[in-house]
Amino acid sequence: MLIYLRLLKESFNFAISALVNNKLRTFLSLLGVTIGIFSIIAILAAVDSLKMEIEDSISGLDNSTLVVARYSFGPTSIPRWRREQFPDVSYDEYQYLSRNLNDAEAITYGMNVPQEAIRYEDKTVSKVQIGAITHEYYDIEALKLAKGRFFNEAESASGAPVLVLGDEIANSLFGEAEPIGKTVRMYGRKFNVIGVIEKEGAGLFGNSKDGAAYLPVNVVRRIYGDNNRGSFPQIVIKPKGDVDQAEFIAQVKQRIRAARGLKPDDIENFFINELKGFSDMIDNLTGQLNFMGLLISGFSLLVGGFGIANIMFVSVKERTNLIGIQKSLGAKNKFILYQFLFEAVILAVIGGLIGLLFVWIASVLASMFTGDFQFVVSFKNLAIGTIVSGIIGLISGIIPAISASRLNPVDAIRTGM
């Protein structure tokens, strides 16, 4: 055992010595692997960061949450012309489900409406994201309030002029002043500020709660009406924790079909989207992005591998005389094999580590310029980069190392003379 350890140590020392003595050649070989590893790990880190940001944006919602709407989150076999004829879910249907779904923990109704400006005295904040929802949204989204409260059932049903602001909007309008109880203007009407949501940080697509304002949906219904196809109404349902998901979905379908008077042979003119399905779609999308990125950047790594193999063949040719002398002095084939194999692996790993360093620097700079969106280089990606670079070195160096180990010592010495 000690003999093999000594053999490995001597092979390692020979490899390091060869790399140090040929700095230009070592640098050129490193360059290809460095670029390849940088490309692969940068793509993996970017996709992982994207996935993490999307998951964080929906982290307040339970994975079993359902979204009932006239559109589908994912692919569907129903043709587009038929989907465009589907009616929007209505406020009456939301009330019907609230009365008849016993296994639902919370049900909320919301509308997507254009951004709006909010004014307080001489200050105006434009392009505010409007959250037009019912009071149950507070429980479904698990909102956290920094100040005040969320609107209650009575205020939601009556469409009371109350407003809950995101942290950024509150700071822009009131600064250090107390926002609770202040009156602001929006839609040409007065609204009373009753709450401020805790600071969340910017979202990937600019849809952070910090830049939003929440108000009872019945206020918006009076302004936009119930037949506005651009408002994309939706009913969000959170089932109780011990409920079977498949049975609950079947129950929701039955209730909506009954509310719409659909006959048994009529197709469903609505979609029940599972948040879990949306999460699966995210996983599928990021998986495809990873695959395409790895495929493209793999060509760069392949070029780096060919570069190492080429340099190793040159190294074998230059040191043919030395190989012959080593063999004549009793060096075994394994010693020569490990010597060149270690040289190739060390070369590739060093190139890979430099590439990982560049990825880390790039992630820090990118995070600085993109504000709250963070590019994360995980330990898993670092391990992948190191292992891949080692494998590339092993594959690239195996043939030159075998050819060196099989040289006849007499011929090798004569070649170098």
TrEMBL record:
- Any idea where the MacB-like periplasmic core domain is? 26-254
Instruction: Say where the protein is mainly found.
Output: membrane
| GO CC annotation terms, alphabetical | plasma membrane
Please, which domain of life does this record's source organism belong to?
Bacteria
Where is this protein found?
A: Cell membrane
> According to its record, how does it sit in the membrane?
Multi-pass membrane protein
A GO MF annotation of the entry reads:
transmembrane transporter activity
Q: Which residues cross the membrane?
A: 27-47, 291-314, 335-362, 382-404
InterPro entries cross-referenced by the UniProt entry? ABC3_permease_C (IPR003838), MacB_PCD (IPR025857), Macrolide_Exporter_MacB (IPR050250)
The protein's UniProt keywords, in alphabetical order, are: Cell membrane, Membrane, Transmembrane, Transmembrane helix
According to the entry, every stretch annotated as the ABC3 transporter permease C-terminal domain falls at 295-409
What protein family is recorded? Belongs to the ABC-4 integral membrane protein family.
Protein name, please? Answer: ABC transporter permease
Write down the species: Planktosalinus lacus
